[in-house]
Design a protein that fits this description.
By secondary structure, the chain is α+β, with helices and mostly antiparallel strands. It contains 3 helices and 6 strands, in the order H-H-E-E-H-E-E-E-E. Strand 3 and strand 4 form a beta hairpin.
Length: 168
């Protein structure tokens, strides 16, 4: 009888040891954790790369919105003065207009802060026509003119020049 009790005790201890080992195996190994961390890192880098393109598109959209405001101000200038002659200066947006210089200055600074580069701002000598073109972050040009056109193009070609004051 004592032998049986002793065997039962040994069996119980053995079962508890096996259960203890099972409980210890419930965690992750170091290799499993490193693999998961590597996968998360790869996914994060893919997301970051795709977001950089979205950032440039947002900046370009903001520059286009700014040029739309320039077009509105150009019409206000023509309303006040009868022509567009104070809109441009030295191939860029003029900031010296008595009534709208402050607004044009803020808009111009915003376009530059978004990465836009002035390509051309021309007002015809008679002041009847104008065109403004900016180089966007995408490498395309965005052009507005006195005819109400707003175009995005890969190359300005003969548009928005001293002889052609329109955007095509």
């Amino acid at each position: 009888m004592e032998e049986q009790q002793l065997l039962l005790w040994e069996l119980a201890i053995l079962v508890m040891s096996v259960n203890k080992i099972k409980y210890m195996k419930k965690g992750f190994t170091l290799i499993e954790l490193l693999v998961v961390i590597a996968i998360i890192g790869i996914l994060a880098s893919i997301v970051m790369i795709s977001m950089s393109g979205a950032s440039n598109q947002a900046k370009d959209a903001r520059i286009q919105g700014d040029l739309t405001q320039v077009r509105s101000i150009a019409e206000l200038i023509k309303n006040d003065d009868g022509d567009y002659d104070t809109l441009c200066s030295a191939n860029d947006i003029a900031t010296s207009d008595d009534n709208y210089g402050t607004q044009l200055s803020v808009i111009k600074a915003d376009m530059v802060s978004q990465g836009g580069t002035a390509y051309n701002c021309l007002a015809e000598a008679s002041g009847d026509e104008y065109c403004v073109a900016y180089l966007l972050n995408s490498g395309d040009y965005y052009c507005i003119d006195s005819d109400g056109r707003a175009t995005t193009t890969a190359s300005m070609g003969s548009n928005c020049t001293n002889t052609d004051y329109d955007c095509g």
